[in-house]
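User: For my dataset I need records formatted as: sequence, then structure tokens, nothing else. Please produce one.
Assistant:
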Amino acid sequence: MPCFNLSTNVTLEGIDISSILKVATSAIANLIGKPEAHVMVMLKGSVPIAIGGIEDPAAYGEVVSIGGLNPDVSKKLSAAISTILEAKLSVPPTRFFLQFYDTLGSNFGWNRTIL
């Protein structure tokens, strides 16, 4: 179950959020090799973020997956998500950080048990 958690200082009012969620879900599923039905995407806007003390559009994200992550996949995910953020939220690639966590199923709770 890949999970993508994204925070940005961009205001999401007037933004087609559904489009961002769908495009990100598809990209993550395709690159990690998991079904779209298992991908969770969370988007938080208007989060105070400064990089170098500058509050221009910026974002921070985390991708957590039970398997499927390696340096090649992470590099492709970074490029794909950065492209989405630049197109949909005007966040330049130089103002976006993405952290990856490849974890065990025993670290995820779901449906009253662990995966």
